[in-house]
């Protein structure tokens, strides 16, 4: 069976940091991260305008770096790694910026995962304190979803659905998440898989995220992230 629709998110220090359990919500304390730039303005309003681009070759480019009870986020040999140690701990690293409407594009490679690939990973937009916002996700076993996090819960706007478009296991997928007004869209490897509407969050940070739902860790390597206006 796939994961449940509810995932508790943990408290965050400094920017946006959390750990959670999908079936029995608990709150974990996380220590303050290092190497995170302060939040910045999204800049101008031109359609298609580039807002952020990073190949992670510079470990001082401003993405969150930290080691926490539920996993780690940070730079590693020209990629950005997000690791969840397992048991439903939701991990993410933020860019330290504030945007409204965005298109987030990234190459994501599953480096390690539980034997059954029961995990998720992807991009997140309009991230608020304690992890509230929108999560556009795929999994190592070939599923996709769009989640909305509010308070201590993460609820599906699009339920977990299987797709042959997703490269399973320890492979790479190109992920594009669009947050444009109330419209949310997930594309994987050039094909649109999911769309939803929600208007609760209008601006916030962007993040790269991963979760393992088993007692084994998930490591996802992200590269060549691009954020632009729709």
Task: Show the helix and strand layout.
Elements: E1 50-54, E2 66-68, E3 71-76, E4 79-84, E5 90-94, E6 102-112, E7 119-127, E8 133-138, E9 143-150, E10 153-162, E11 172-180, E12 183-188, E13 191-197, E14 205-212, E15 218-228
Antiparallel strand pairs: 1-15, 2-3, 3-4, 4-15, 5-14, 6-11, 6-15, 7-8, 7-14, 8-9, 9-10, 11-12, 12-13
Name the features.
Jelly Rolls, 230 residues, single chain
Account of the protein in words:
This protein is mainly beta and 230 residues long. It has one domain: Jelly Rolls, CATH 2.60.120.560. It is 0% helix and 48% strand. Strands 1, 2, 3, 4, 6, 11, 12, 13 and 15 form a nine-stranded antiparallel β-sheet that branches. Strands 5-14-7-8-9-10 form a six-stranded antiparallel β-sheet, with no helix packed on it. The N terminus is likely disordered.
CATH architecture: Sandwich
Tally of DSSP β-strands: 15
CATH homology superfamily name: Exo-inulinase, domain 1
Radius of gyration: 15 Å
The low-confidence parts are 1-45
- Name the beta content range: over 45%
Class from helix and strand fractions:
mainly beta
Using the coordinates shown, work out and report the CATH topology: Jelly Rolls
The shape, in one word, is globular
The total of helices stands at 0
């Amino acid at each position: 069976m796939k994961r449940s629709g509810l995932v508790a998110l943990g408290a965050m220090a400094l920017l946006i940091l959390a750990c959670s359990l999908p079936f029995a919500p608990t709150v974990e304390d996380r220590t303050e991260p290092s190497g995170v730039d302060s939040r910045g303005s999204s800049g101008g309003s031109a359609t298609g305008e580039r807002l952020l681009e990073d190949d992670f070759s510079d470990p001082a480019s401003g993405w969150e770096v930290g080691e926490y009870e539920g996993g780690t986020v940070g730079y590693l040999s020209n990629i950005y790694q997000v690791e969840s140690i397992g048991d439903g701990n939701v991990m993410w690293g933020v860019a330290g910026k504030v945007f409204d409407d965005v298109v987030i594009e990234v190459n994501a490679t599953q480096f390690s995962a539980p034997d059954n690939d029961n995990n998720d990973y992807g991009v997140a937009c309009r991230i608020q304190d304690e992890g509230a916002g929108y999560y556009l996700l795929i999994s190592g076993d070939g599923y996709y979803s769009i989640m909305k996090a509010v308070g201590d819960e993460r609820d599906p706007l699009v339920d977990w659905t299987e797709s042959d478009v997703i490269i399973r296991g320890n492979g790479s997928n190109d992920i594009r998440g669009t947050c444009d007004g109330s419209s949310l869209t997930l594309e994987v490897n050039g094909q649109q898989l999911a769309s939803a509407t929600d208007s609760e969050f209008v601006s916030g940070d962007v993040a790269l995220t991963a979760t393992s739902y088993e007692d084994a860790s998930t490591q996802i390597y992200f590269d060549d992230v691009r954020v632009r206006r729709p």
